[in-house]
Amino acid sequence: MPDSVGVRLFSFLLEVAVYSYRYFRLLCLPLMALVLASFASHAATNLSLIEAQRIAVGDAPQIDAQSAALRAAQQASVGASEQSDPKLIAGIENIPTDGADRFNLTREGMTMRKIGIMQDFTRSEKLQLRGDRANAEVQKETAILTLTRLNLRRDVSLAWIERYFAERQLELLKELARESELQVTAAQAMLAGGKGQAADPFAARLSVAQLADRAIEAERNVARAQANLARWIGADARRPLDSAPAFDQLAHGHQELTSNLEQHPHLAMYAPMQAMASSEMKLANAAKHPDWSLEVAFAQRGPAYSNMLSIGVRIDLPIFQSRRQDPAVASKLALVEQVRAQAEDAKRAHAADIETMLADWNAAKARLQRYDAELLPLAHERTSVALASYRGGKGDLAPVLEARKGEIETRMNHLMARSDLARAWTQLNFLLADKKDPS
After folding, report:
1. What is the pLDDT of residues 396-416, one digit of tens each?
2. Dihedral class, residue 141 (left if φ above 0, else alpha if ψ from -120 to 50, else beta)
3. Which of 429, 418, 424 is nearest to 361 (CA)?
């Protein structure tokens, strides 16, 4: 009998184990799969700085507009150095308007039905200059398209960084608020234990309220930054942000940033602009040398008269150059000087901007190093010492709150220094095009 009970008990336990395994497979495994999928989905939805740039470049109206301008210039350059199309000549000459042959087309010997063709022949020098000008315009539009892409990536990066640091500021304020709430609890406990001052809990609560007020401002900054980012990438701006890149490492060295300025995307369009102005000036000067045209026509008269063939040549006569061609040449020459001066001014401004950006980046980097090495540890140590003294009954709460306030400001300034470094990094990184970056 005991053996029978043992067998049934063993069978019962075995069935329980089998059912448990089945339920584990049916319920637990899918649940675990959902959790893992959730984590994977969360990781996949984080928006990195590079991805934000790629999204913005892929759906940017300003790039579409500039691409259209480039296509227009390319198409216009195809026939710029070609001769113009021939012209068809057709008409009726010398129709009598009175007498017996009024409006008759065959009885009057001078009446002719005429058909012919005319071709203008532009000098080869002018055709070459027109082609040069068109090609220079293509180069200018290409340079502007490159600059447009670069500026777009810079602007979306600045928007991404703005949101990133706005969120870090909000997180920091919430963390500090939680720590300050613990101080309120400690102050109340100290007062209940017969230590401290009656005003200490109120002072601690005031500190918490002040942090809450700053958190509201920080939340507004996050919302504004997200809206600004949405201006570039749309609904993707609502995705959580990925970690920030290393802002203390530049993509281009100092020598690379400060040399060959004419090749920088911000200045690259000036060389073709000067070429365009120079071609226009030469075209104005070439107008002093006339073009010519050839006309061949066949004239049919009445049956009683012979048909006619006409051949003619037309040549422009620039005999008033002092009032027409010379002022035009002077006007185009002035435009050449204007573009040259604009290019020089842009070059100087660009060089100054680079030095200013480098100074900002180096200063922000030095500030961060000082914050990490000295200011943050000192501020934290001051708070710890003041708090230990207060808890030991050797000090008041006021020095604790003062030290705490100083630490808060130090940590906030540290975050601002990181933000300044990131902005300077962005400005410098997008001065030159990088083949590795999305375009």
Report:
1. 888 888 888 899 899 999 999
2. alpha
3. 424
